[in-house]
């Protein structure tokens, strides 16, 4: 019911996102924290896009130094969030036989987020591999 309410009341969703402080949090951990409070939808769609867009902007606002040092933008964070969600599903789903390797994740992510370093993307992979799904 919360998801339906927030989907209908975007003004309330905006205020809830503003209450989150993602300062000094590694991106996958911040995304987990976000989805712990604002439950991720079970399917892709407009509501998930809205959540990730709002999260991306808030993450950048809370981490101006990181944004500057890594050359991130809300659009780049948005792409990285989708990559993390897809990787999470890939690594945890029993239906996926051939799990994505770290090299494949870096290559695929760098195609969409050109200015992000291989090392940073590699650390994202390691976090998901070791800690688990971002939207569980």
Automatic annotation (TrEMBL):
InterPro entries in the cross-refs: Sec7_C_sf, Sec7_dom, Sec7_dom_sf
GO molecular function: guanyl-nucleotide exchange factor activity
GO biological process, one term: regulation of ARF protein signal transduction
Protein name in the entry: SEC7 domain-containing protein
Pfam families found in the cross-reference section: Sec7
Organism taxonomic ancestry: Eukaryota, Metazoa, Chordata, Craniata, Vertebrata
Gene source species: Etheostoma spectabile (orangethroat darter)
Record-annotated SEC7 domain positions: 1-131
């Amino acid at each position: 019911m919360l998801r339906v309410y927030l989907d209908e009341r975007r003004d309330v969703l905006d205020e809830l996102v503003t209450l989150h402080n993602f300062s000094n949090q590694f991106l996958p951990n911040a995304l987990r924290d976000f989805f712990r409070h604002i439950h991720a939808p079970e399917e892709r769609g407009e509501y998930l896009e809205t959540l990730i867009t709002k999260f991306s902007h808030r993450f950048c606002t809370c981490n101006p130094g990181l944004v500057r040092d890594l050359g991130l933008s809300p659009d780049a964070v948005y792409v990285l969030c989708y990559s993390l969600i897809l990787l999470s599903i890939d690594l945890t789903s029993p239906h996926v036989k051939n799990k994505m390797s770290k090299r494949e994740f870096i290559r695929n992510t760098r195609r969409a987020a050109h200015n992000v370093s291989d090392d940073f993307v590699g650390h994202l992979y390691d976090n998901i591999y070791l800690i688990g799904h971002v939207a569980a």
